[in-house]
Each structure stands twice: as structure tokens, then as C-alpha cells.
Amino acid sequence: xxxxxxxxxxxxxxxxxxxxxxxxDDEFLGLKVPQTREVVRLAxxxxxxxxxxxxxxxxxxxxxxxxxxxxxxxxxxxxxxRLANDEEAIRHRDEILTLYLQYAGQAxxxxxxxxxxxxxxxxxxLLPTRLxxxxxxxxRQVLDELASPxxxxxxxxxxxxxxxxxxxxxxxxxxxxSWCLRYAEMHLHHPHDLxxxxxxxxxxxxxxxxxxxxxxxFLHRHAHEMPRTMLRYAIEKMTEAERTRxxxxxxxxxxxxxxxx
Length: 261
Known about the structure:
By secondary structure, the chain is an all-alpha fold. It has 15 helices and no strands. It has helices spanning 5-14, 33-43, 52-56, 61-77, 87-102, 110-114, 117-125, 136-147, 154-166, 168-173, 178-186, 193-209, 212-222, 228-234, 240-247.
């Protein structure tokens, strides 16, 4: 048995599982991520997709992670350049994506989102699909639904919203800044620090992978209304002098501010 009670206590503190915290009541076995990845490596190739929901519904954090990483591994095998336009591969990717969205609420901590959303949802944005009408408009509808407040309980909304921005890591890596810019703007006034950090992080990656000038343009328009945490994350790789200039812009709270000049 891989369970480690000492590591379990560390993880429960790290992932904020106490009363009123974002990971309240989450249960850990005490496995480190490389241990979970090794299980996935041994099991993922022949693991039936129909059995993944049982893993995703587990009350154990690491078992849910295992299920998500199995989906990642199976999606990536169907998303190689050779298989990008293969009809059977498209069908299989769409099936994985549909299952992932169906159980999105089970990715209920930031690590579960961050280790799965870019490689499943983000990669799907870049590939042919037979879901909906297959267009970018349809894909935006999918992400908009994740990004928007819904009838789900607040923590579940938080993780779905994080999916909508963190998945853009993949699109920015491939040189497409449009997804990051759309959802960064949508989450500009998000009150939770986990979303502020994620949005700033994705903006920073977009600037790094696509265009630092696009990042600067976004900041010229929005730095005055961005939460300081989001802004700090977005400018983290800039020079100290430039970071100081951006951080010196006074923040005007609220959603209906005049844009920065």
C-alpha cells in the first residue's frame, strides 16, 4: 500500500482542506505526484474509458488525479500530428473531452485542474472536433459555460472557471493568444486569489510565448482595474524597473472604470 500518513498531513495543510478553506473535506492518501504518474503509466494504455468515472468519483484526491491523468494520457495518444485529422482519433478525443467536462466538478482543487485542463481542454481547442458544429464559436461556447457563474456551488464554479483560463496555457504555447486574452478579460474582477493568480500566470505565459507587446497592450487597458495579485503574476518576468512602473498605477476598483490612458 502506497499510503503515507505523514505526507497525507502535509498535503492536507498544503491544499487547504480545513473548515471554510477551498479544499475543505478533501481526503488524501499521502502519495506524491510521481507515484501517481507511475500508476498511470502502467495502467493508462489499456484502461477502459468507461471505468474512469469510478476513479473520478473517488473521495481520495490522488485517485481522482489518477483518473484525470489517465484521460490526459489517452487524449495525448490521440492528438499526435499524425492523428490530428484522423476520424477515429477525433471521435476518441471528443469522447474524452465530453467525459472530462461531465466530471469537471471532480477536479476540485487547483492541482487537479492545472495538471489536466491544458492537456485535454486546451489541446482540444487546437484540434478538429465533431462536437457541435466544430467551429471556434462552438469551442468558445464550451469555455464560456465553464467561465460563467452557474447554478453550481461556489467551490465547483471556482474550479470550472480556473479550467477556462488555465487551459489557455496550451493555446498560448502554440502561438494563439486569443483564448488567453478573452478569458483573462472575463475573469478580470474575479474575487478569489486562486483565480487572480491563475489569470496573471496565463497572461505572463501568453506574453512569453506569443507577444510581450500584446501583454503590455492588455496591461495598458486593464492594469488600473486588475487585482494586485493578478498584476504581480502577469509582470513577474519583466525587468524590475518595468514591474515598478506597472505596480505604481493606482487601482480603481469596480467593473465600470474608465480605461487607462
